[in-house]
Design a protein that fits this description.
Elements lengths: L1 H22 L2 H12 L19 E7 L9 E4 L2 E4 L9 E8 L3 E7 H5 L4 H9 L6 E7 L8 H9 L13 E7 L9 E4 L16 E7 L4
Antiparallel strand pairs: 1-2, 1-9, 2-3, 4-5, 4-6, 6-7, 7-8
Subcellular location: Secreted
Family: Belongs to the FAM3 family.
Pfam families: ILEI
Amino acid sequence: TGVIRYVVLLITLLGTWFLMQTYFDQRWIAISLRSWLGEALLPQHKCGNQKSCPQDYFAFKIISGAANVVGPYICFDGIVLMSSVKNNIGRGLNIALVNGELVPAKSLFLFLMLFSSDINKLDTFLAEIKHGTVVLAASYDDAATKMNDKVRAHFVELGSRHVNNLGFRDNWVFLGAKGLKNKSPFEQHIKNDKETNKYDGWPELLEMEGCVPRKMD
């Protein structure tokens, strides 16, 4: 039985690899594999970043989803918080919270909530974030369709510049903090535009990495 399971797993992986080679570019494949395998493929710098961070900073990397095929990836201080291999991502808006001892408090999948039409849960979730908490967010497929003004206002409070412009199937990655006095420098946004989309119906994925101070002001 064990041998059969390994054979089935190998066939599944090979089949997935073949499909991705056939339909998607090499950059997408590399990011997808890194997301599936978690920390196993990370090089010497935390989160697989190109450079190490100073002593008083945390390394982070956020990768948005690619269309509705490859899920997002969130890493903080060398710890993979959300990824396909952890099976804790979903279509919509993926959020990880980091506070105190670097433990992700919750994850929330906006897309799954939309089917129950309960956007108020997201509003409550964001309102209850404690002062000093670092918030990391990545879109996957569509994160904005039913975002209301109250939800967008929470992200503005967390330091977002672009959340009010977030539209259907846009890609968005963001790192902010509760109690941030200024706008966060850690944010990327790309519009869904059929004239410029890299993939059919979706824009190119976003990948953002950097060093965030241990205390964000």
